[in-house]
Write a structure and sequence with these properties.
CATH topology of the largest domain: Adenine-n6-DNA-methyltransferase TaqI, Chain A, domain 2
CATH superfamily of the largest domain: DNA methylase specificity domains
Shape: elongated
Strand content: 15-25%
Strand order of the largest sheet: 2-10-7-8-5
Number of strands: 23
Distance between the termini: 23 Å
Largest sheet: 5 strands, mixed
Number of helices: 13
CATH class of the largest domain: Alpha Beta
Helix content: 25-40%
Length: 429
């Protein structure tokens, strides 16, 4: 059954008679044009933008605001309507909205208008025009089925009425829709409260990092540096004095004998999507011959792997020896440096900004090996480095625990949607 209901496109290719054989008797099957009123955005020439406007003006970027999940309550711009002919494009609360044009379609951002408003032309809204379809159920239905799999992909991706109107929608009696919504909203509420806790922990970590890297632990005398005051007893030292800095490389991808070996080989995207500070495996591996025939080098374990091209400053500690591609400069510390301290300092936003200031490039920014080696960082005693790292580890641990918890909740929600929105599991009256 699940294979039939993995996408709206696949579901819509099934004959209604075939679907009725699979679905419970009291579930309905209707097409988009029977169920939905479709509303498009308004040209800005029909609107008057004012800070105290009575209407929200929703753009795709507004959907990135964490306060707008799932209800759209804030927009950067507000407006008033100046062309009465466009009244039909004004959305009341509870309209379901999503991007209709461009790459944003593939982000699967769906929301519900929390106040009256109108849309940017790159947005679209759908409103139930039948009484037996609950608008919040429709929201979850569209989130689950992901509209990206029905959009036109030729050139600029987009969704239009002709894409939505022929789609087949399946839904249970109204009371069951309400019960399904209650279950999913309960999970969403826990996800959102977990996200708020993560944000508070991250803000707390930011503040504590600033205090520790400026004041240290128990110091009373300070000196000025380019990055601000630091304890007088600390060194302010070039990276090349405390570590070896080594770049990376990519073996020829056309040579099969260079690939699928035993040597871990990491790319920047693997670092940016890490949840935590350690990396212990990689998507691809290279052979000894691939290593020998390229500029890649083995980086000893417990080094700092730092992205220095395009994405600058993402970093991780390698738990195993590995090689990197050319998008990295890798810091192999001397014994006077605690690797965890180095990781946290490289993650410190003022130092991140400093690295970007020394980056160059027309196509994409890159900080060179020479520039990175010559950057200075504050260096406490090894004992104090470890104390600072331990404090930050405790916060980092709490962030990681809650990130994992949120991820598990999202998997639970996805599983519930899969069984509840496809009739595999019924909710009792």
């Amino acid at each position: 059954m699940i294979s039939v209901f993995t996408s709206l496109k696949k579901l819509s290719t099934k004959k209604t008679s075939s679907l009725k054989e699979i679905l419970p008797e009291d579930w309905l099957i209707k097409r988009g044009n029977e169920l939905l009123k479709i509303v498009n955005g308004i040209s800005t020439s029909n609107l008057e933008f004012e800070s105290d406007g009575t209407l929200l003006y929703l753009k795709v970027s507004d959907m990135n605001n964490p306060k707008n999940k799932p209800y759209i309550l804030e927009t950067v711009n507000k407006c008033n309507l100046i062309n009465e002919l466009q009244l039909s494009n004004i959305l009341d609360r509870n309209s379901v909205v999503f991007p209709k044009r461009g790459a944003a379609i593939f982000t699967n951002k769906v929301g519900i208008m929390g106040n009256r408003g109108t849309l940017d032309p790159n947005m679209m809204a759908v409103i139930p025009k039948v009484k037996d379809l609950y608008f919040i159920y429709l929201y979850y239905y569209l989130v689950y089925f992901n509209l990206s799999n029905i959009c036109e992909n030729a050139g600029l991706p987009q969704l239009n009425k002709k894409d939505l109107n022929p789609l087949k929608f399946i839904y249970p009696p109204f009371y069951e829709q309400q019960k399904i919504v209650t279950i999913l909203e309960n999970v969403d509420n826990i996800i959102q409260s977990t996200q708020r806790l993560i944000e508070k922990l991250m803000e707390c970590k930011k503040g504590i990092m600033q205090q520790l890297f400026k004041e240290g632990i128990g110091h009373t005398e300070f000196k000025d540096t380019k990055l601000g005051p630091i304890p007088y007893e600390w060194d302010y030292i070039k990276i090349q004095k405390i570590a070896k800095v080594v770049g990376g490389g990519t073996p020829n991808t056309k040579k099969e004998e260079y690939w699928s070996g035993d040597i871990l080989w990491v790319t920047p995207t693997e670092i940016t999507k890490l949840k935590g500070k350690y990396i212990s495996n990689t998507e691809r591996k290279i052979t000894e011959l691939g290593l020998e025939k390229s500029s890649a080098r083995i980086i000893p374990q417990c080094s700092l792997i730092v992205t220095t091209r395009a994405t600058i400053g993402a970093c991780a500690i390698n738990k195993k020896p590995l090689a990197t591609n050319q998008g990295f400069q890798n810091i192999i510390p001397k014994e006077i440096v605690n690797i965890d301290y180095l990781y946290y300092y490289f993650s410190y936003s003022p130092f991140q900004r400093l690295m970007k200031r020394y980056a160059n490039g027309s196509t994409f920014l890159e900080i060179s090996n020479k520039s990175l080696k010559n950057l200075k960082i504050p260096l406490p005693t090894l004992k104090e480095q470890k104390r600072i790292s331990k404090i930050l580890d405790q916060i980092e641990s709490q962030i990681y625990i809650n990130l994992k918890y949120r991820s598990n909740l999202e998997k639970i929600k996805r599983g519930l949607m899969q069984v509840l929105l496809t009739s595999k599991k019924r909710v009792k009256p």
